[in-house]
């Protein structure tokens, strides 16, 4: 495991094919996890997930797997994508068993810091489903402001001050 950065309780590591079983467990939890990240309702196969993760690794994507420091348990993934200039879109997905423990908020705060101070971003933006009020609340609590919405998504951003 190559740790790229960390927070109080989380190691942010480069994704690894060794975690494919954990990735599959997370994204194939359709009713509690996947419904908040995509429209797909069919489970991914191991082959599909390995190909997806290999593509991320080959393209040197700014994606990180989150590992709980105290136990070594997989928490989820986060990624800065659609990077152009000093802006990037941010996303997170967490395995259901690690939700409601404060890791989402901790990860978001640390990723904002990493994005602004290590990646040189000025603006981080995201889209979140309208029917995910818990996530919207966390984003707002961490400084994101809504700039647009439609019937399906709320679009939010945080801009580096100064």
Describe this structure in words.
With 162 residues, this protein is of the alpha+beta class. The protein has a single domain, classed as Gcn5-related N-acetyltransferase (GNAT) (Aminopeptidase), CATH 3.40.630. It is 28% helix and 33% strand. The protein has an eight-stranded mixed β-sheet with strand order 1-2-3-4-5-6-8-7, with helices on both faces. A hairpin with a 5-residue loop joins β3 (62-68) and β4 (74-84). α1 (20-27) crosses α2. 25% of the residues are buried.
Summarize the topology.
Blueprint: E1 3-6, E2 10-13, H1 20-27, H2 46-58, E3 62-68, E4 74-84, E5 87-94, H3 103-117, E6 123-129, H4 133-141, E7 145-149, E8 153-159
Tell me the helix content: 25-40%
Q: Nearest-angstrom radius of gyration?
A: 15 Å
Count of discrete alpha- or pi-helical segments spanning 4 or more residues = 4
Weakly predicted, low-confidence segments: none
Q: Please state the average pLDDT score.
A: 93
Approximate shape: globular
Work out the number of β strands: 8
Strand order of the largest sheet: 1-2-3-4-5-6-8-7
Task: Output the CATH topology.
Answer: Aminopeptidase
Largest sheet: 8 strands, mixed
